[in-house]
Amino acid sequence: MGGQKFEYDESGSTFFYFVLSFLALILVPATFYYWPRKKKEDPAKRAELCQCPPCVKKQLVLEQSQPYKGLKNFLVKLAIISGWVLLGFLAYKVSQFDYEMSNFDPYEILGLPPGSTQAEIKKSYRKQSLILHPDKETGDEKAFMRLTKAYQALTDDEARRNWEKYGNPDGPGAMSFGIALPSWIVEKENSVWVLGLYGLVFMVALPTIVGMWWYRSIRYSGEQVLLDTSQMYFYFCHKTPSMPLKRALMILAASCEFDRRHNSEIVERITDNEEVPMLLRELPNLGEKNKEQPLCRPYSIKARALLHAHLSRMRLPSEALEADRRYIVAKCPDLVLEMVNCVNQLIALAYARRIPRLPSIETIENCMKMSPMIVQGLWEYKSPLLQLPYITEDHLKYSANRKKHVKSLLQLAQLRSEERRQFLKFLNDKQYEDVMKVLGNMPYIHFQINTEVIDDENSTVVTAGAIVTVTVTLQRTNMKELFGDTTIKETEIKEDNGEEDGDKVENGKNEKEKKETFKRPVWMKQQKKQAPSKKTKKSAAAKQQVKLATAAAEEKEKEKEKEKEKEKEKEKEKKTKDKEVKKKDDEGSDSEAGSDDDSASNSEASEDEERDKSSAQDDEDDDQWEKFQRKIQKRERLEGRSKSSHPVHCPYFPLDKQEYWWCYICDRKSRTLLTAPAHVTALLGSLEVQLRFTAPRWPGLYTLACCLRSDSYIGMDQQQELKLDVQEACAVPAAHPQWDLSDSDDAHNDQGDNESEFTTDDEVEDE
Questions:
Q1: 112, 327, 362, 387: which sits with the fewest CB atoms below 10 Å from its CB?
Q2: pLDDT category, 555, cuts 50, 70, 90?
């Protein structure tokens, strides 16, 4: 290591290397992530969007909410382009350094061809030295040094040998390691400034940034809700176990996110002293005289009034109140989710006997109801048809006097096109088209449940105290598949193509059976059949042809099956006759007959064993496949939940919204929640949700309810009954004498148990 020496970068070449590599590490990811891009809108998706006035107004408000977006994008582009220009300049400088160090050619420096004579070399050196000498006006010290070095390499014998052998007239140079910092950093005159900059960055700026981040993070929960707000939710939900919807709205409006002391984004104006009391006079049953803290604070009353005005779709008197309404409403879905989680945790604490009172199922359901109400800007008791554009309460009052009563979105979707157009005849063609776009894109959920006891000998039998796993299968489709005109089009196509073959009919039946594996819920009743009109005579004839074709195909199959059965019976009769003949022929040779029977029995036994082995292998493969699927599901849960779903039509909600759902199991008779509500955020097509709970301790037949609630639409909730036949658990083996348990402890545990067990159907009948 004697030939090595460490030195600071005097010429600046290694510093350029450092800056070049550091800048490239920053520019490449910054360009990829921060370069402003315009989203290319699909014309087909753009055509499916609603063009009603509230939706158009919402898009304008969203665009105007970011006034400095253009300037920000320009500055980002300018910074990235400047960085790439600097990177190119540094790359050019580094390439010049590399060329000078690795390409030392004395002939090229002197401007002579290889093999020139000594006279030509001296002549060229004198000519260029007169120009490049430092004492001259056109002199260049570095160029003159290179010129002198090239002249020595060609005139001096030793320098020439070194150049030919090592590429350098000075011979093999010592290995030097340069520190990629300029030498002025360590000079005594600049030490105070360097030390000050170091202290400012690492002792002031960095701790300040980390402290601000830490102070902000400890104030918020996992759902980005203030911990003070969560604490308030816990207090009020514990104080009122049976919380009505009106009180839940009051507690939601009292969230700390709407208080200036907790949230610096809140704007308090002098005009609120006049505008808010005027708004309170127009809103009845607001409960502004409540004396509970913080429900009686001014910020809470203002937020409550704006929420009531939003749910009533009231036009506010000033633009300032409208801006406050948009801010408050945009915060509400996350706050509602946090409130649901708080009630769920209180129920878990009540089951663990840490709090005396158990919140009822109505409390958590009323909290869930607030989310679709706020997203759609509609009270729960209003008609779900008001979620569609252009439809008002006056239109519904007019339609209520008609014979055709349509009270839900599902009933409207199931009408035939002529009846639907007649029902919405107060709309023009453009408005009717927008209504059908919105209605067709609304969710239609196929809801199916399956109950089992995993890791048990018999997974279909539920015993007392067992852990029951309910697999909820959700399949999301658009409501446009329920439109009555689609069925008419399908039958007309079948009639035109002349599909009367038995095979095609069977394939169609199989496809229908696959589609109908998901049963329609109770609330999705089919429309009553009506007498066929004149316009649908062709479709009725096509249906009759299809039925005839299916009947003929079924008769052919039955005939084939009968023929196969007759052939099997004939084969059996032949075998029995052959056996009787063999017995008569072999009466004298009993030993031989015995050996034949043994071989036959052995062959049959071997066949049975092979079948058992194959079936066992199939079962093992199925078990391994199920375990593999469970591992994949666990891995997906650990990686995090996706929040990409279908967009929601919500013109009165200030932000874009995605469809989310809550799925849970409850007992309506005891008014208790059995499983934590699963928040489904990625229902794009089909999805499976697993819910687990402990079966009751006493045998009997229990009727539970599996519920699915939407956080975006009113009237989309579903519920299915879950019959749970709980049988008595198997006897526990006798305990070892050393494991003797006192009866007093068991009795004490039974008396102190605060769990709300299920009620059986027999108990309800006795009551």
A1: 362
A2: low
